[in-house]
Amino acid sequence: MSWTDERIDTLKTMWEGGQTASQIAEALGGVSRNAVIGKAHRLGLQSRPSPVKPNEPAAPAPVAAPAPVPAAPEPEPLVAAPPPPPAPPRAAAPVIEEEDDEDEDDEVVAAPAPVREPQPILRSVGPGGFVRQSPGEQQPPATPAPPRRLVPAKPSPEIAGKTTLLDLNDRICKWPLGHPGEPDFHFCGEKVNPGFPYCVAHCGHAYQAQLPRRDRRPPPPLPFGGPRVR
DNA sequence: CCCTGATTCGC
DNA sequence: GCGAATCAGG
């Protein structure tokens, strides 16, 4: 990944908006926290209350004086709807993200976490084309009116015979094929390489020796069938 | 441990 | 210019 104007812009906006380097890195995708910090400095964005460095006086302690909070937490729209000013969310499909995949999970089960998103909320789109959600912006699961009776969901025909999420266990390869949300999204399902979450073949893709940079070869194939093409 | 940003330095 | 490694504080 390179620093395109667009990405630099996102970096600036988020950095100035008070997002942490980690958050920015994740939003941008394909870069590390360090990369973000390094770039921020090179851009002259420097400074910003560092937990390590002593800070200028002047500003009254932000911690002791929390801003008045509205009685009820305002429900945040699922899709970023930042007030007029700041940059719009980056809705564009990801462009060939390199490495970095990390665990894209956790997002569903997140507990009530302290909201720490001050300003504009920029989000990225995950490898599967889904919109990422920060832990702080969970929508309490709406409790829909219970249906009159529950009918067992029948698997779509496309998925017949495929390894679905529900079929996963410790012994079968969890390498995803296709894109989450699509009707035929499924998992490899081969017998795993013992001790690994993937079969032998997919382990070959997932784990690669860390070579000196100079000697690194091709961009590793991505899980999720690669970036979505629209 | 986790997190944070700052800095260094080989590439 | 880039970012991993490292440092140092919370």
List the helices and strands and how they pair.
Blueprint: H1 5-16, H2 21-28, H3 33-42, E1 176-177, E2 186-187, H4 200-206
Antiparallel strand pairs: 1-2
This protein binds a DNA duplex (11 and 10 nucleotides) through helix 3.
Primary descriptors:
single chain, 230 residues, mainly alpha, two-stranded antiparallel sheet, 2 strands, 16% helix, 2% strand, disordered C terminus, DNA-binding, GcrA family cell cycle regulator, GcrA
Structure in words:
This protein has 230 residues and is mainly α. The chain has helices at 5-16, 21-28, 33-42, 200-206; strands at residues 176-177, 186-187. A two-stranded antiparallel ribbon has the order 1-2. Residues 55-142 and 214-230 have low confidence and may be disordered. The chain binds a DNA duplex (11 and 10 nucleotides) through helix 3. InterPro entries: GcrA. It comes from Sphingomonas liriopis.
Residue share in helices?
Answer: 10-25%
Task: Output the radius of gyration.
Answer: 21 Å
* Biggest sheet layout: 2 strands, antiparallel
SS summary, helix count: 4
Shape annotation: elongated
Pfam families: GcrA
Protein name: GcrA family cell cycle regulator
Organism: Sphingomonas liriopis
